[in-house]
Amino acid sequence: MSTLAALLDEGRARRVYSGAAWSVGDADGPLDRGRTGTRSWDGPPLDGDDLWDLASVTKPVAGLAVMALVERGALGLDATVGTYLPEYRGGDKETVTVSQLLAHTSGIPGQVPLFRDHPTRAALLDAVRLLPPTAAPGTRVQYSSQGFIVLGLIAEAATGRPLDELVAELVCAPAGLRDTVFRPDAGRRERAVATEDCPWRGRTVVGEVHDENAVVLGGVGGHAGLFSTLADMERLGIALAGGGRGLLAPDTFARMTAPHTDHLALRRALAWQGRDPVGSPAGDVFGPDSYGHTGFTGTSLWVDPATGRYAVLLTNRVHPTRAGDGIVALRRAFHDAAARLPRDGARPAPPCGMAG
């Protein structure tokens, strides 16, 4: 049994999650991959085709679509919210730039449970527009799901196309992601891993987005809503470890993954987290130029360009409840073990369709 398998088996034994799947490797493919546990505490064993709610790992995937639009000249990083969204003109967010939204320096507060008082899409989007800023744009790093909701609206306004279509065309198709979707169909929902026994919905959520604001938005948002499989996240990790090949031109990819906020204490790239000096979810071994993202449901994707290594971790740590923080230490331990994984030895077989 590998170090990673033992670590993640222990996480299930401690009831951090009912199931976990992982892949660690480089641009040539996985070095270690596997799964442990069940889709729910009383459900079937994971079989490798399981569908996971990515939660905020949606943000960098949507960010890749935004950067592809920048590359095509469809929108500009220095353009403002008011340029694309007429309803924001004359308001306190009009001058926020696309770059500031991507770097979480927009000043738009995040983690606001707007769904409680705004039960329709139109009402919730109005509430986002009217949220009082907590800082002037560009002066503070503040994680903002609401900012990424706005970013998704900008991508749609700039192209006249829905965000899910843009992500499918600009990210999923070139990276070969076959099961990475918003609003899974019935067949995919049958393969979904359970998340929370949700008090708001009165049921255990399976195959429906966990994030309540995303539910009100119809399941599609720049901040949350994507579902995926281990094989797809592995493909994305391999593409990122290879310098974003097939996704973005080298200079665009370098700009996206470079730190943009070091003068503000926390390290953020464009739609990616950087490795903060203290308490990074990437642990202590991944390099200072590494980047990635975590998701509230217990998912993460991290890449170290210095070593060419990626690490994917998929869990349902919110099942049956979001209470508990066991994922925090486990995730750091996972990344430390992933960074130390030797390159020698036989590689596991790639997922179906990846060979060649």
Automatic annotation (TrEMBL):
The keyword rRNA-binding does not apply. It holds the Pfam family Beta-lactamase. Its EC number is 3.1.1.103. Keywords: Hydrolase. Gene3D superfamilies: DD-peptidase/beta-lactamase superfamily. Residues 5-323 form the Beta-lactamase-related domain. One of its GO terms (molecular function) is hydrolase activity. InterPro entries: Beta-lactam-related, Beta-lactam/transpept-like, Diverse_Enzym_Activities. The keyword Hydrolase applies. It comes from the Bacteria. This is Serine hydrolase domain-containing protein.
